[in-house]
Amino acid sequence: xxxxxxxxxxxxxxxxxxxxxxxxxxxxxxxxxxxxxxxxxxxxxxxxxxxxxxxxxxxxxxxxxxxxxxxxxxxxxxxxxxxxxxxxxxxxxxxxxxxxxxxxxxxxxxxxxxxxxxxxxxxxxxxxxxxxxxxxxxxxxxxxxxxxxxxxxxxxxxxxxxxxxxxxxxxxxxxxxxxxxxxxxxxxxxxxxxxxxxxxxxxxxxxxxxxxxxxxxxxxxxxxxxxxxxxxxxxxxxxxxxxxxxxxxxxxxxxxxxxxxxxxxxxxxxxxxxxxxxxxxxxxxxxxxxxxxxxxxxxxxxxxxxxxxxxxxxxxxxxxxxxxxxxxxxxxxxxxxxxxx
Length: 341
Hints:
This protein is mainly beta. The protein contains five helices and 21 strands. The longest helix has 16 residues, at 29-44. The chain starts with a strand and ends with a strand.
């Protein structure tokens, strides 16, 4: 993909004042490595990725063996309208969240720690919901293309380590093969180098991995409808994962492969109006991810009805059976659809 460097659009520069929160220096490679080793040692005493009793360096986000189970966490806001597809870098994400935005459409929030692809995007703007959703990750870095002007100070006051184009111009590029605003891409490694000090490493957010729970029902396809978009997840025994379709079209990666995940969580949440509007005057939706509610966990060609619980923004999200036992996920990427209740 041919790219040209950019310092970001005017919308991206609305978040430029986040520099006041960057601190006076950058975390050195030696300091990052030492911090990662310390956290990894702590996780080895009881890694949440080992839901079936295994010990080792496993990601708390995917349950898979990784080189560094406490590597820095980077979240990226990704466009998901037809003009933005196929996206780059989604297949390497540990977790992909689907969130409702204005006009009944959706955007994706991809969380990276285990693996950083060379390019992620197209990158789009942040929303108020992102602050609460990401708080369970501690103080992760957030890459986004801009934000509504009144939301900027709220983002700056949050615990997120903000990495918009105005603060990390070298981490972003524009593709000559697409038109704006669907052509901004992120170099994740550059973004983490430019992030403010104190980016959190991966830690327990409530996911549990291991053998499939008992029960459930045989299921090969589930659909989720938002006001203006429909997602379908179809189980593929050949690929050993749930393949994603959007509005009847197969969702693919930029390299042509199908998007899909071994575990898909349909988390039903309250979606209400936020305090903010987009440029056209449409009120931005707010997906409430604290509290509790119903969920359906898809894995291995079966569907498991569950309850989700997250008492506070700082808490992880627990998924349990009606009897209160943890619903274990299959190891690998997890998609979490914040579906209308």
